[in-house]
Amino acid sequence: MSVSVEGRYFLPHATRFVAARACATDDRRLRIEDMAGTLITETSASELSVSSRLGRLARRIEFRDGGRFESGDDDGIEALRKALRLRAPGRVLSHLERSWRWIAASLVIAIMLSYGFVEYGIPWIAGRLADATPQSVAELISHQTLQFLDKTAIGPTTLSAADKQRATRLFAKVAARAPRGIQGYRLEFRHGFGIGANAFALPDGTIVMTDELWKLVRNDEEVEGVFGHEMAHVDHRHGLQSVYQASMIPAVIALLTGDVSQVSQLATILPGVVVQSRYSQGFEQQADDDSAKLMLA
Fold first, then answer.
1. How does DSSP assign the chain, residue by residue?
2. What does the pLDDT look like over 96-140, one tens digit per residue?
């Protein structure tokens, strides 16, 4: 017996093990004996495979019949491998795992990839998800969002019939030149007791304007610009993109599996996005540009 290592021998296809000793013979055979020296099994090296050296993980010698020998004696297993002239798997991985230079380089690469995914990957994926979202899902999210806001941040409008008629007329004037047309947008009036002077767009084309904002309007062009800005958010699906970026996992599950229950999770995020206008600077610039084109038209 040239080399022996103590460890545990797991019986074929079982979780039960016995304390054992692995011994390499001169004719490239591996003997497994219990601690009293009784033979448990003996196998030719050609029917064995050895796990790679990786950190503090126990090394394994796998038998073709499903049995395996494990030991925390890394150097001992390596000596067995050499005595049996078994192939050394994972040499490159083992070398990288032990090299601080490669570890540091891997960490830097991982940080760069993570930053790139967050900065560019997630927005790109969110945009594709927003484009792929069916109108029925957008309507459901919008309905639940407005219900939530009606209970927490806004209330019934107090505007006069004349003010609402004037606002509706201006809204229709802008919508007629917007991509979706008059039928693609809907104006809702609310008292903004929790959010003040504000206007926001929901994914289905609903645009909510608060009484407080209307009272600040000095001329028709001002409110037309606001309407054009919010319609642009609808056209580019900025609301959905922002929601997906904030909740990527539920969004993917909802679209890939058709699990509508995930939509409720999205609807809990959208109120914070639209009420606090948490669109990215790029989204706002895009909406401003489109609104300016509508105003010029």
1. --EEEEEEEEPTT-S-EEEEEEEE-TTSEEEEEETTS-EEEEEEGGGEEEPPP-TTPPEEEEETTS-EEEES-HHHHHHHHHHHT---TTHHHHHHHH-HHHHHHHHHHHHHHHHHIIIIIHHHHHHHHHHHS-HHHHHHHHHHHHHHHHHHT-EE----HHHHHHHHHHHHHHHTTSTT-GGG-EEEEEE-TTT-S-EEE-TTSEEEEEHHHHHH--SHHHHHHHHHHHHHHHHTTHHHHHHHHHSHHHHHHHHHH--THHHHHHHHHHHHHHHTT---HHHHHHHHHHHHHHHH-
2. 666 678 778 888 888 888 778 777 887 888 889 889 999 999 999
